[in-house]
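Weekly sync notes, structure subgroup
Attendees: PM, AL, DS (notes)

Item 1: joint prediction request from the bench team. They want all two components modeled as one assembly rather than separately. Inputs as received:
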Amino acid sequence: MPQLLTQNSKLRKTSKAIGLKVMNFGIPAFEDSEGRRTCPFAGSCADFCYAQKGAYVWSNVKPAFKWRYDQTKSATFVDDMVSEIVRKKADMIRVHDSGDYYSNEYIDKWMAIAKALPHVRFYSYTKSVPLFLSRVWPDNFDIIFSEGGTKDDLIDYTKHRHCRIFDSYEAMAQADYVNAMDSDVMATKWYNDSPNVGLVFH
Amino acid sequence: MKVFYFVVETDDPRDEGFAFKDLDYYLNDFNNDMGTEYRNVDDFNDGEEYRQIYTIKEINE
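Output from the run, pasted for the record:
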């Protein structure tokens, strides 16, 4: 049976490096097998999305993402996730190594989870920029707006933490973006003061 | 016939895997660390999307 929370190899290494247990939660990228959009603001990123290839689409992985997506629709999702985080003693949760916030109601559920567990840190890359602009999220939740969506024009680069994908490490350094390739938590406000987060296309 | 186990991080192409003999010890250690309740190889492989245990049987000729 799939787990609500997992730990991919990058977060396993990150966890060892920082001495905290970082786990991830993922749902299908772009849309599920029934055509329901899980990344409603995906733009050009859909053409090269890492979560639509490789390990993410292996036969044992795809059903697990679909199962998790169905769980997010459940009335007990908040309670189930809180229990899972407590049971697994997670210190940080990356919400969506695959998929995105697909509705306001769904965001509300994650905000409720974060408020119930103020000692746990949550973070997300998201292209659902319009769904967050009028929100205030808890201190233990960090949101990184990710370029490549259909609403990039709403990102305020002077104040919003955001992520840009570069062709090379050299280009990333020249643009003065902080490298989050090796350690995922470098994208977050707890490990990086700069709002400029960089990744290199892979 | 001796049995070995080999666990691989399947989402990391650079992972070289880890071989072990004592499955119960490995699963207990993993369960304690990750808050899971795996009791055998099938449980583990069903629940862990990003890692897989292979059972290797050494054939005595």
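Discussion: The longest strand of chain A covers residues 121-126.
Action: AL to compare against the crosslinking data before next sync.
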